[in-house]
Amino acid sequence: MGRITPICKLTAALLLCAAPAYASVDDGQTAYANARAAEFGARHGAALAGYLKLFEESADSETLAKRVYENAVRQGDFAAAVKAIRVQELKNDVPPEGPLVLFTDAFQKRRWSMALLAADELETRSNFGFMAPILRAWVSVAKTGTHDLTLQEGNTDPFFNFYAVDQIVYLDLATGQNAKAKLGLRNMVSVGGDAMRDLYISAAPVLAKRGQVGFANAMLGTAMGSEFGGQFEEAGAPESTISPNVGLAAMYVRIAASLIDQDLPEPGLALARLAVWTAPDYAPAIITTAKALGKLSGGREAVALLDKIPSSSPYWTRTVFTKAALLRDLGDGNAAVELTRLSFDKNAKSAARATLLGQMLQQNGRLEEAIAQYRTAMGLDDFKRQAPQSRASFHVMLASALDKNGSWEDAQRELQNAITLDPSNASALNYLGYGMLERGADMAQAEAFVRRAYEIEPTSSAYADSLGWALYKSGKFNDAVIMLEKAAAAEKGDTTIFEHLGDAYWRAGRRRDARYAWNSAQISSDAAVALRISAKLDVGLPGTIKTAN
């Protein structure tokens, strides 16, 4: 009987399996260390190759499964991600999006029962469980060409209600329910943003082919403005349909974008990769993946990924915007400006492209040019055709440039214009109110503005800070503390919030807490702010103010 060689399981530390006399003393430690070094150096391709080689020999290793999965997501290697998730599932240590990876794999292979099992797993064990009914609906469409997903009155899950709105329209389009789809598309105007535009761009050719040419043209005009260069014709609408893959990818993109906006780029990247793995040519999936990669590493890989999207794409303006932002973050501001200038020169009738150039100029400190560019954008017919909410955002951008250029009165006027156009524009309300607070102008009105912004978006730490500061300025120190503590809990590294909180603690008589908050503010502050906070730490705040609480 031959000698039995023990099979050793790789651990999170060194590979400490006792080796037989003839085995290498290293036993994979060097290979693992090299892969970790590659990962720490952001060489994720080399890291993944190293981990996969070790994984072949220790296929039940939970540690290797995690390393393979994380680097597979970075590299976009779907097969490796699936392999790793299956091991993690056996170890009962799956990341929240793990069942989605298995669902996507089963869906691609048309293994419907396995896809439904993955949806069940997602619903019971993941904070992405709200997606399960939508996943089942797409399985039904793929299998039978029908779906029964609706927004039910008894469903109190806010995430399902939020993300199902556009998904039901995609499902209706995929199953030929044109009348329902048109009603849903009209309702999407109130949602706005990229989710609305993505849906309109996908839906327009489908409805045009089904005889709804006027409606399709109106949708594309709303979604793209002057980017929509032509009209569908009754006899010339291109063959088109909404595939289940595109519908699913749209959901993954919307959730990924939300995660990225909340400064959660790693789960955002995982969802964005799922979108690409589901629909490889879907431009919003590529753009969102690039945004997540840029947040994580700011590398050229994100810029290169966007090169896959042609200039003929209806998503080209968004592609240019994303690429320019990545170049700016890489420190190549001039390249970002030139890219956006070239895009604008190719379509000088586009308000979106004109505004993008203004933003890049502003972010590179070229404020006079930026102000002129914003005014150019707002003089275009394309701007005048925009919905009031969109026009309001242009006024906010112009106000920002004017404020930074030292023209607060002009900035204030633009912010008031924005609020007139869109009374629910929380950004404009907060900007105007906080600006008034800082300048000591009409404190009651300033508090009313920031309170409205907070009531519209109560999860925003910035708006909570503004309202807390307004309460502080009004002498309501105990109320200010409550609001500023909420802001600080959501934004643990913000210098301004913690300085405000320290000031409120001091005035409320909580001197020790004040110094803790000021210390927290000082950690991430620049030199001038650090000097100011040092004085507070030394002697506190001068004078006493009677509390209004």
Features:
549 residues, 29 helices, mainly alpha, Serine Threonine Protein Phosphatase 5, Tetratricopeptide repeat, disordered N terminus
Molecular structure report:
This protein has 549 residues and is an all-alpha fold. Among the domains are: 7-94, Serine Threonine Protein Phosphatase 5, Tetratricopeptide repeat (Alpha Horseshoe), CATH 1.25.40; 481-549. It has 29 helices and no strands. It has helices at 29-40, 44-57, 62-75, 78-90, 98-108, 112-125, 132-144, 158-174, 178-187, 193-209, 213-224, 244-261, 265-278, 283-296, 300-306, 316-329, 333-346, 351-363, 367-378, 381-384, 388-404, 408-421, 426-439, 443-456, 461-473, 477-490, 495-507, 511-523, 527-539. Helix 8 packs across helix 9 (178-187). The N and C termini lie far apart (86 Å).
Short summary:
The protein has 549 residues and is mostly helical. It is built from 29 helices and no strands.
Which helices and strands, and how do they pair?
Blueprint lengths: L28 H12 L3 H14 L4 H14 L2 H13 L7 H11 L3 H14 L6 H13 L13 H17 L3 H10 L5 H17 L3 H12 L19 H18 L3 H14 L4 H14 L3 H7 L9 H14 L3 H14 L4 H13 L3 H12 L2 H4 L3 H17 L3 H14 L4 H14 L3 H14 L4 H13 L3 H14 L4 H13 L3 H13 L3 H13 L10
Helix pairs in contact: 1-2, 2-3, 3-4, 4-5, 5-6, 6-7, 7-8, 8-9, 8-10, 8-12, 10-11, 12-13, 12-14, 13-14, 14-15, 14-16, 15-16, 16-17, 16-18, 17-18, 18-19, 19-21, 21-22, 22-23, 23-24, 23-25, 24-25, 25-26, 25-27, 26-27, 27-28, 28-29
